Amino acid sequence: MINLEWLRTFKSVYETQSFTKAARELYISQPGVSLHISSLEAYVGYALFERISKKLIPTEKAKILYNFTLEPLLKLETAEQTFHKTTKTERPTVSIGMCFETFQFTLEKHIPTFDFNVIIRFGLYEQMFSDLDNGLLDLIITPRKANLKNLNFDSFSKEKIVLINGTGTDTTEFQNLIKKNKIEEAEAWLKQQIWYSTAADMEHLNNFWKANFNRHPDFKPNYIVPNICSIVRCLSGNSGFSVVPDFLCKKEIANDGIEVTWEGNNKIENTLYFGERIKNNVQNEIDRIKEIFRNENF
């Protein structure tokens, strides 16, 4: 069986091109480095280095071996650092699931202040429910609830789904049509405009359209961008429309970059919930996260 210490020594010699530097890096003697390399060469059956101008030049076989073993060795070194016994107090780790935009709006700026580890995960809510139930997540922020006996959902705020436009857009005609309750003409006018949406999720647009025009939107957005925060930045001060949660663009509204075009005759409001297991080992850290969300102005 191959000795892992031989491979670690080989990696160091390969990268430093020197037995002396490798010995210093690994805190072993230079004869020890030489012994590891010669033992590895005997095991694999070919030379790994050639000495040229006081440098150790890897052979073609050494290059193949290095590329093949580098990633596993790095993973082993990470595991060693992570699980090495230490006298330091262990920092708790909290895994949180939410949508990317909610993270950027609320939690991102607080991350450097935490005295505990945080892992943020994005994804579909159905997967988050499963991961929370199975212990892979400790807390989720969600506009939906799941009927799972081990989970508790606590409402803390609401988001309103609204039609927005950049302030470079002339909405006079649309507003006149809405005032006259000419909904079909207003819909037709909107479909001729510039639209932004996200690649992953058109749920807000679909729900808003169905609630107010009694059908799914039958047009294709002009610009598909990575997330809602990108939409807000692209629209600010420019022309175009999108359908988003109102709290994600409150700053741009205050700065006159974006306007709420229409809340709809049938307003859409989503209740936001904290989802967590009934029993967990990081309740103090979870409570701190929840307090941050409660203090935000949704």
Shape: elongated
Q: CATH fold name of the largest domain, please?
A: D-Maltodextrin-Binding Protein, domain 2
Q: Cα-atom Rg, whole angstroms?
A: 29 Å
Oligomeric state as shown = single chain
The helix count comes to 12
Task: Give the rounded overall mean pLDDT.
Answer: 90
GO molecular function: DNA-binding transcription factor activity; transcription cis-regulatory region binding
InterPro entries: LysR_HTH_N, WH-like_DNA-bd_sf, WH_DNA-bd_sf
Family: Belongs to the LysR transcriptional regulatory family.
Organism: Epilithonimonas mollis
Fold blueprint:
Blueprint: H1 4-16, H2 19-26, H3 30-44, E1 49-52, E2 55-58, H4 60-83, E3 93-97, H5 100-107, E4 117-121, H6 125-133, E5 139-142, E6 151-166, H7 172-179, H8 183-191, E7 196-198, H9 203-213, E8 223-225, H10 228-235, E9 241-245, H11 250-254, E10 258-262, E11 268-277, H12 283-295
Parallel strand pairs: 3-4, 3-5, 7-8
Antiparallel strand pairs: 1-2, 5-11, 6-9, 6-10, 6-11
Helix pairs in contact: 1-2, 1-3, 1-4, 2-3, 7-8
Family: Belongs to the LysR transcriptional regulatory family.
Keywords: DNA-binding, Transcription, Transcription regulation
GO molecular function: DNA-binding transcription factor activity; transcription cis-regulatory region binding
